[in-house]
Amino acid sequence: MMTELLTGHLLDSFPYIRIGDADKQLVVIPGFGDAMFGGRYPPAAAWALQSYFHRFTDEYTIHLISRPRNLPENYTIDDATEQYGQILDSVPTPIDILGISMGGFIGQELAARYPELVNQLIISSSGNRVAESGRPTVERWKAYADNHRWFRLRSELATELYSPRDWRRYSLPPTIQTAGRFVLPRPAVPADVSRSLAAILDYDGTSTLGDVEADSFVIGGSRDPFFPESVLRETADGIPNASMLAIDGAKHGAFDERKRLHDSRVKQFLADPPQIGAD
Q1: What is the pLDDT of residues 237-256, one digit of tens each?
Q2: I need a labelling partner for 118 at 20 to 30 A (CA). Which of 61, 88, 196, 274 fits?
Q3: What are the beta bridge partners of residue 245?
Q4: What is the DSSP letter of 33?
Q5: Cα 238 to chain center, whole Å?
Q6: In this structure, what are the phi and psi dihedrals at residue 269, rounded to the nearest 5 degrees?
Q7: Which residues contact 38 (CB under 8 A, 6 or more apart)?
Q8: Could you tell me if 238 and 123 are in contact, meaning their C-beta atoms sit under 8 angstroms apart?
Q9: Distance (Å, rounded) from C-alpha 120 to C-alpha 217?
Q10: Burial 29-40 (b: 16+ CB within 10 A, else e)
Q11: Strand ranges across the sheet with 60-65
């Protein structure tokens, strides 16, 4: 049977890709790099995403939902949560949410604000706040974005995504700085990148973790400079029913670098979430 693939815009503003027609719904909320593309997914992107999430498509309809372009000044994670809240009605509920990096911030706020709509929550390479060790890097990236130094930002991001044992840590930065200048997309609205990074720096969701009623799974890399194991643990401990996995040796791109392990553990959680504190 052919998998249904759709691209377009929700509410005329949110670029999205939908894969499949299964009864269960998994909404994927991406990180800040979402602001660095043109704002329209070509049909080929749906085929690529189908391959990337192939472990889930037998049971889930996947919705990758991007943020709108032209983000307002002083944009915050609260603003993003309100935006995504507007489109929850366009997806059959209850839903499961996979929030990656900045998307994890939004996912935990959605689960806290709309408990009746969110069934299960995965916070991947994210947490309740950026660790102090990672803040200087995010601040430097914001300065790059302010000055439209996209290839420098992308090459440093690649370095932070992958650990020293992964070949992409070494091959991607020079490729981005050379061939990438001709093939990688430019941000549709440059200010969106700066505003997204500012929102990341301003966010601290510690006080709302206790409002998350959904069964939750916090997963990331043990060597992630932005969300190290201590932040993963702090986040899971703050949510009433949450489990946690720090993938040994992985950095911020644990969801990609250790994809087989990441996806298998996420799938295991979705199928049978542990009951924390159960008798």
Answers
A1: 999 999 999 999 999 999 99
A2: 196
A3: 219
A4: G
A5: 20
A6: -60, -45
A7: 185, 186, 187, 188
A8: no
A9: 8
A10: bbbbbbbbbebe
A11: 5-10, 14-19, 60-65, 24-29, 95-100, 118-124, 215-221, 242-247
Q: What's the whole-model pTM score?
A: 0.93
Mapped onto helix, strand or coil, the DSSP state of residue 7 is: strand
pLDDT digits over 54-105, tens only? Answer: 999 999 999 999 999 999 999 999 999 999 998 887 788 889 999 999 999 9
Looking at domain 5-134+204-271, its CATH superfamily turns out to be: Alpha/Beta hydrolase fold, catalytic domain (3.40.50.1820)
Task: For residue 150, count CB atoms less than 10 angstroms from its CB and return exposed for 0-12, middle for 13-18, buried for 19 or more.
Answer: buried
- DSSP string for residues in 196-217: HHHHHHH-B-GGGGGG--SEEE
Tokens, residue 22: 């299964």
Give the Cα separation of 21 and 185 in Å (integer).
Answer: 30
Q: What is the CA radius of gyration of the chain?
A: 18
User: How far is Cα 77 from Cα 99, in angstroms, rounded to an integer?
Assistant: 13
Cα separation, 17 vs 41, in Å, equals 7
The pLDDT of residue 184 is 74
CA dist 105 and 200 (Å) reads 8
The amino acid sitting at 43 is P
Q: Do the beta carbons of residue 208 and residue 108 sit within 8 Å?
A: yes
Tokens for 104? 């994890």
Give CA angle at 36 (35, 42), nearest 5°.
Answer: 95
Cα dist. 103→5, 166, 168, 179, 234 in Å?
A: 22, 24, 23, 29, 18
Q: What distance in Å separates the CA atoms of residue 265 and residue 176, rounded to the nearest whole number?
A: 31
